[in-house]
Amino acid sequence: MHHTLLTGEIISKEAAGRRALEAFPDHSAILEVALARLRGAPLPANPPRDQWRGLTASAMRSIIADSPADDLT
Question: What is the pLDDT of residues 22-60, one digit of tens each?
């Protein structure tokens, strides 16, 4: 989502996940979970599943806050 909001370019989920890891290292735990699910790989033990929703919402808030406001209208 971040890359698309910044550039208008639509990229694969895999590429978007890798870029998000670079741009938002503070959210790496939940981004690694998302990439593992996408790849069909074993899910990491941390963060615990009961924290995923809150961590996902936090990551999304950061991504949106980092995106240009004129692209969000």
Answer: 999 999 999 999 999 999 999 999 999 999 999 999 999
Q: Helices marked H in the chain — which ranges?
A: 2-7, 13-23, 28-39, 52-65
Amino acid at 13: K
Residue 48 carries which side chain, given as an amino acid letter? P
Single-letter residue type at 20? A
Q: How many CA atoms lie within 13 A of 53 on its CB side?
A: 1
Query: What is the b/e burial string over 12-51, where b = at least 16 CB atoms within 10 angstroms of the residue's CB?
Result: eeeebbeebeeebeebeebbbbbbeeeeeeeeeeeeeeee
Asked whether residue 73 carries a pLDDT value surpassing 60, the answer given is: no
